[in-house]
Amino acid sequence: MKGSRHIRGSVPRFQEFQNRKHGSKCRKEDRYNGTIGLKWMLHACLTAAAVSDWRNGKIPNELTAAAAVAGCGYFLAAGMGAEAGVAAARGVTVLLCLFPLHMFRMIGAGDIKMMAGMAVFLNREEWFQVMAGAFVLAGCWSVQAMFRRGVARERMQYLLFYVQRFLRTGERADYMTEGMNSAALLCLGPFLWAGMTLFLMGESAG
């Protein structure tokens, strides 16, 4: 009898645990389904940016502006005005933080604007995950390209010289000079697209 009472008392607790677990899973799925459309919208913008960057070597201002407006508009259309404000603030923060790289001509303005636009669609953790994937892929591509063209040593020497000169003189000079071969320039648009694609694949698998 004592064992039976123990079993009967355990059943409600087990059911309560299962309900909590199921409820947590449903809330997670709801959050995922509520943002998946937003992320695929970003993926479409990045596809257009990648094609433009690959063909023309730049990402148009009209495209980056449209992406940022679309991201904020999505939140506003969903009745989430506060989230739209937070998303816009993330984008501005990324733009300000990365702008010095453009001042040194290390990254194109279109790339920075596109990365800032991505922050409108993604939260901080998601943005860092996508950026990590994009820059790992871009780094691997850049390294193999330098070795294939036989300029790896030259590029490393130039980078060290540039850093040493800046630390010694404080002079801000363009990292990309007119005398550099255009083949040394890296289009980031396709890698931002690839990083976002890998991120979406990971979310779908998870």
Descriptive overview:
The chain has 206 residues and is an all-alpha fold. It is 82% helix and 0% strand. The chain is built from 7 helices and no strands. It has helices at residues 2-56, 61-77, 81-103, 109-121, 124-149, 152-169, 189-205. The longest helix is centred in the first third of the chain and has 55 residues, at 2-56.
Tell me the major beta sheet.
none
Mean pLDDT: 77
Estimate the strand proportion: under 5%
General shape: globular
Distance between the termini: 45 Å
What characteristics describe this protein?
mainly alpha
List the helices and strands and how they pair.
Elements: H1 2-56, H2 61-77, H3 81-103, H4 109-121, H5 124-149, H6 152-169, H7 189-205
Structure at a glance:
This protein is mostly helical and 206 residues long.
